[in-house]
Structures are given as structure tokens and as C-alpha cells.
């Protein structure tokens, strides 16, 4: 699949730790979490393994990234100690000997049973977990807003924010990392469709908080900023009123 949805596989490993350090860790234990645009699953797996959500589902539009995310789940499991200490064994071990099988467990909320991935264009298709709703949506939307905005225009992005509002439980949280407007100029060059949509955009990332407020979110705070240069972004926390 061409990378016109931001579906680069090398994207994320670089940025996982600096970003997860900013998350409000106390929100995650026992929560049902959705990671939209989960890419190769590093952040999703980190949360499943370190922050004890009841269940976390990563959804991505690109099947090859979803396949890589399932493989990453197996690797993360293989590196954990028998008492589930993460990264206990060296990465060379599963690389040379193959991954460890995941045994069945009665505790479906323990890692890695609390972690699953799905392939879908989440702006247009529902996934089974949507039915029960979520306590937290990562709309990494971490670094996904630009791609939905450029592919589907202002209306598509607003519909995406509305869908997040719908699937969140009352007082559920949205963690949002919008890309800055300046980064759109380069991205639009990737296709004629993105270029044409770019010309129609009225909404700006600096106004997303107003749009989200109109939909029914309250801005809680900026959790911090990560990245260098063009990757410098703030991560914002919202709550569903
Ligand atoms: C730039 S990457 C960000 C990855 C990750 N969320 C992060 O912040 O590190 C954007 C991801 O969103 C996915 N994506 C884009 N549009 C999507 C959609 N409509 N539904 C699901 N995933 C989508 C892409 O395939 C890509 O993996």
C-alpha cells in the first residue's frame, strides 16, 4: 500500500519511549483502550505490557503493519521473564531460536492476552470492540490526524472525532497528538488526491481543541512535547463530558 495514510513501518520504534513517558499512567490500569493508527504496534504493546489495561486493541488501515504488530506481540512476550518482567531476555534469543509460543491463560486481561490488533479503516468501519466502548482512545491519533485530514477533508476529520466521542465511555479520555499544519505541505505532495483535499481545508490543528469542545470534549492539559525539528509535537489530553 502506498504511504498516503502515514503507513510507514520504520516510523515508530524511534519515538516510543519518549512519548509513553508522558502518558498519565494512572489512567490505564483496568481500562479498555483503543489505539487508532497503531502502526507496527510498539506503543500498543508497551501499554499492554507495562500499564496493565484490561484490554487494548490496536487498529490500522494497513494489513502489513497489522501483521508486523502481531509479530511484535510475540517478540515482546518471548523477551519477558517467566514472571513477565519485560525485556528480560536479549533480543538475539527469539531472533536465533524463534519466538516462544504463547500458552493459553485463564486470565485474559494479563499480557499478552490483553493485546489484539485489527486491520480496518476505522473512520469508515467499526471493529467488534467498539460495541463495548473504551475508557481511553489514543488518537495518536498519535500522528494520525494529518493523514485523515488530508485524505478525507475537514468533514472526514470531524466525523472521526465524533466517532471517538461516541465510542468513549462517559469521562473517558482521548490522548491526541496532532501534527502541526506546517507538516501538511510536504505530505500533500504524495498524491494528487491529497493535494486537492489540502486546498479545501479550513480547519487548522491549532483549532482542533475548539472543534473537540463543540463535539463534547473538555481539554484537560498538554501532557508534554516530544520529538525534534519537524517531529516536535505536543500530546494533549481530553475528557468526554
Ligand atoms: C504516522 S503513523 C502513526 C503511528 C502511531 N500512531 C504513532 O503515533 O507512532 C499513522 C498510522 O495511522 C494509520 N492510519 C491512517 N489512516 C488510518 C485509518 N483511517 N484507520 C486506521 N489506521 C489509519 C497508518 O497506516 C499509520 O500506521
From TrEMBL:
<feature type="domain" description="Bin3-type SAM">
    <location>
        <begin position="17"/>
        <end position="241"/>
    </location>
</feature>
<dbReference type="InterPro" id="IPR029063">
    <property type="entry name" value="SAM-dependent_MTases_sf"/>
</dbReference>
<dbReference type="GO" id="GO:0008173">
    <property type="term" value="F:RNA methyltransferase activity"/>
</dbReference>
<dbReference type="GO" id="GO:0008171">
    <property type="term" value="F:O-methyltransferase activity"/>
</dbReference>
<keyword id="KW-0949">S-adenosyl-L-methionine</keyword>
<dbReference type="InterPro" id="IPR039772">
    <property type="entry name" value="Bin3-like"/>
</dbReference>
<protein>
    <recommendedName>
        <fullName>RNA methyltransferase</fullName>
        <ecNumber>2.1.1.-</ecNumber>
    </recommendedName>
</protein>
<dbReference type="Pfam" id="PF06859">
    <property type="entry name" value="Bin3"/>
</dbReference>
<dbReference type="GO" id="GO:0017069">
    <property type="term" value="F:snRNA binding"/>
</dbReference>
<keyword id="KW-0808">Transferase</keyword>
<comment type="similarity">
    <text>Belongs to the methyltransferase superfamily.</text>
</comment>
<dbReference type="GO" id="GO:0032259">
    <property type="term" value="P:methylation"/>
</dbReference>
<keyword id="KW-0489">Methyltransferase</keyword>
<dbReference type="GO" id="GO:0040031">
    <property type="term" value="P:snRNA modification"/>
</dbReference>
<dbReference type="InterPro" id="IPR024160">
    <property type="entry name" value="BIN3_SAM-bd_dom"/>
</dbReference>
<dbReference type="InterPro" id="IPR010675">
    <property type="entry name" value="Bin3_C"/>
</dbReference>
Amino acid at each position: 500500500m502506498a504511504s498516503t495514510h502515514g503507513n510507514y513501518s520504520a516510523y515508530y520504534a524511534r519515538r516510543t519511549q519518549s512519548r509513553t513517558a508522558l502518558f498519565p499512567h494512572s489512567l490505564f490500569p483496568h481500562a479498555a483502550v483503543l489505539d487508532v493508527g497503531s502502526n507496527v504496534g510498539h506503543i500498543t504493546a508497551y501499554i499492554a505490557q507495562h500499564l496493565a489495561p484490561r484490554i487494548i486493541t490496536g487498529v490500522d488501515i494497513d494489513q502489513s503493519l497489522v501483521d508486523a504488530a502481531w509479530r511484535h506481540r510475540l517478540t515482546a512476550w518471548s523477551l519477558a521473564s517467566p514472571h513477565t518482567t519485560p525485556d528480560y531476555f536479549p533480543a538475539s534469543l527469539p531472533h536465533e531460536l524463534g519466538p516462544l509460543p504463547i500458552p493459553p491463560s485463564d486470565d485474559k486481561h494479563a499480557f499478552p492476552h490483553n493485546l489484539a490488533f485489527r486491520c480496518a479503516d476505522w473512520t469508515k468501519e467499526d471493529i467488534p470492540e467498539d460495541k463495548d466502548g473504551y475508557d481511553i482512545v489514543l488518537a495518536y491519533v498519535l500522528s494520525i490526524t494529518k493523514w485523515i485530514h488530508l485524505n478525507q477533508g475537514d468533514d472526514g476529520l470531524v466525523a472521526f472525532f465524533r466517532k471517538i466521542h461516541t465510542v468513549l465511555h462517559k469521562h473517558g479520555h482521548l490522548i491526541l497528538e496532532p501534527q502541526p499544519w506546517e507538516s501538511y505541505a510536504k505530505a500533500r505532495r504524495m498524491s494528487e488526491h491529497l493535494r486537492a483535499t489540502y486546498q479545501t481545508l479550513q480547519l487548522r490543528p491549532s483549532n482542533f481543541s475548539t472543534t473537540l469542545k463543540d463535539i463534547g470534549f473538555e481539554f484537560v492539559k498538554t501532557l508534554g512535547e516530544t520529538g525534534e525539528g519537524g517531529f516536535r509535537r505536543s500530546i494533549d489530553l481530553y475528557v468526554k463530558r
